[in-house]
Amino acid sequence: MSQLVRKVERPPRLIDEEGRRADGRKVDELRRIKIEVGVLKNADGSCYLEQGRNKIMAAVYGPRELHPRHLAMPDRAILRCRYHMVPFSVLERKSPAPTRREIELSKVIREALEPAIFLEYFPRTTIDVFIEVIQADGGTRCAGITAAAVALADAGIPMRDLVAAIAVGKVEGQLVLDPMDLEDRYGEADMPVAMMPSLGKITLLQADGLMTLEEFEKALELAMRGIKEIYNKQKEALREKYLAIKREVEVT
Ligand code: UDP
User: Fold this and answer.
1) How far is ligand 1, taken at its centre, from the CA of residue 118, in Å?
2) How many whole angstroms from 247 Cα to the centroid of ligand 1?
3) Residue 181 C-alpha to ligand 1 middle, in angstroms?
């Protein structure tokens, strides 16, 4: 029989006496993040990202001609985003058709990325971003934004800054950085944040559940610390890809 735990069961404590979470992390610790750039041959830019058990692929196409043409803007490009979870990405099969949640997340992700892109450089065109969640374990909208920003940079789209995102949760009365699905499910609050880290501009701020004003301020501070860490990983991954290309060119 499969060893997979099919049900998300609540452990007796989500944070133990020593301040350790169910997966061993401290409250202010991110999940392990792996970012790979330029993994898809047919896309203009792409990124594969793992954040804990989340596995996400982002692909960017464009700037390219827009069909139908009447959607085109005379003075700028439009940005289109599709966030989608594959049917096997979650414990209970998800219908492949877009759900209300995915339509909403596609919109908020577009709004989180849009301020970073010089859309005015490419009138009458479209830039298309596809985010496929291959395996989900909470925080996929944030991980999707982080991956999409790297894919946009990989596509050579001129940007004001990268966008990095993370959620802060509240679990058993404590703020936790980067909640996984278990903590999201049984926690008291969840606050996803996206920002352009160098410019210090927030492009997404959502909140679910209850937090006091003091908790909100602490949560935002915690999110910003997480975002800085992720931002460094995004830049490192981009640098690595282009250094590898440079090395190849030098050899040949
Ligand atoms: N989820 C699920 N089935 C679905 C949608 C979501 O099991 O159809 C899980 C999945 O693990 C996801 C988590 O619920 O990551 C939290 O979803 P939420 O809507 O809060 O978005 P996220 O935290 O992924 O940004």
Assistant:
1) 31
2) 40
3) 7
pLDDT tier at 6, thresholds 50, 70, 90 = low
Q: What angle do CA 40, 193, 155 make, to 5 degrees?
A: 25
State pLDDT tens for residues 35-66.
999 999 999 999 999 999 999 999 999 999 99
Architecture of domain 26-251: 2-Layer Sandwich (3.30)
CA nearest to 59, candidates 90, 38, 35: 38
Cβ atoms < 10 Å from Cβ of 244: 12
Q: Which residues line ligand 1 (CB under 6 A)?
A: 90-91, 94, 101, 136-141, 181, 184
The residue with tokens 């006496």 is 17
The minimum-distance atom of ligand 1 relative to the CA of 94 is: 8
- Closest atom of ligand 1 to 54 CA is 15
Atom number in ligand 1 closest to CA 99: 8
pLDDT in tens, 123-169: 999 999 999 999 999 999 999 999 999 999 999 999 999 999 999 99
Q: How many CB atoms lie within 10 A of CB 158?
A: 14
Q: In this predicted model, what pLDDT tens digit does every residue of 202-239 receive, in sequence order? A: 999 999 999 999 999 999 999 999 999 999 999 999 99
Structure tokens at 160: 């004001």
pLDDT-derived band of residue 1, with 50, 70 and 90 as boundaries? very low
The beta-strand segments (E) located in the chain are 33-37, 45-51, 54-65, 78-85, 125-135, 164-171, 174-177, 189-196, 201-205, 208-209
Q: Which atom of ligand 1 is nearest to the CA of 90?
A: 7
Other CB atoms within 10 Å distance of the CB of residue 236: 11
